[in-house]
Design a protein that fits this description.
This protein has a single domain (4-137), classed as START domain (Alpha-D-Glucose-1,6-Bisphosphate, Chain A, domain 4). Helix content is 28%, strand content 42%. It is built from 3 helices and 7 strands; from the N terminus they run βααββββββα.
């Protein structure tokens, strides 16, 4: 099973994109795949060996879980690599395409419980939510 890849171009400078992607005050406003979900809390210690934990909950209270990981590599404005408890790895690349345009490229190990196309759609939906937040709220 190879890594899955998603991407988005955000019409904002890379420093603003980096900040909004990693600041818990921003994360709670965009880190969900659908409007029926929320991210009520976020903790982020963005350094090698640091941990993050984002609480994901259905707004109707029917389901929730913690999305957690440990950082393996952090290069400000460029790269974040982390692993989850089950060993799956995620790599997020930030690339300034111009002064006011940034590409985010995410490669992740799929889990085995859900079809890959479903995982791609879910991860892309969250990235699209970030794009919308970054472009309209920053």
């Amino acid at each position: 099973m190879g890594k899955l890849t998603i991407s988005a171009e955000i019409n904002k400078p890379v420093d603003q994109v980096w900040e909004a992607y990693n600041d818990p005050k921003d994360i709670v406003n965009w880190n969900f795949a659908h409007e029926s979900w929320s991210c009520p809390s976020s903790e982020n210690d963005l350094k090698v060996g640091g941990k993050f934990k984002n609480r994901m909950e259905a707004k109707d209270g029917s389901f929730g879980f913690d999305f957690e990981g440990v950082y393996d590599d952090v290069r400000p404005l460029e790269l974040i690599k982390y692993h989850m408890e089950d060993g799956r790895e995620v790599e997020t690349n930030f690339k300034a395409l111009s002064l006011n345009k940034t590409e985010i490229l995410v490669k992740f190990d799929p889990e085995t419980q859900n079809p890959e196309d479903m995982q791609l759609q879910g991860w892309q939906a969250i990235l699209n939510s970030f794009k919308n937040y970054a472009e309209t709220k920053l």
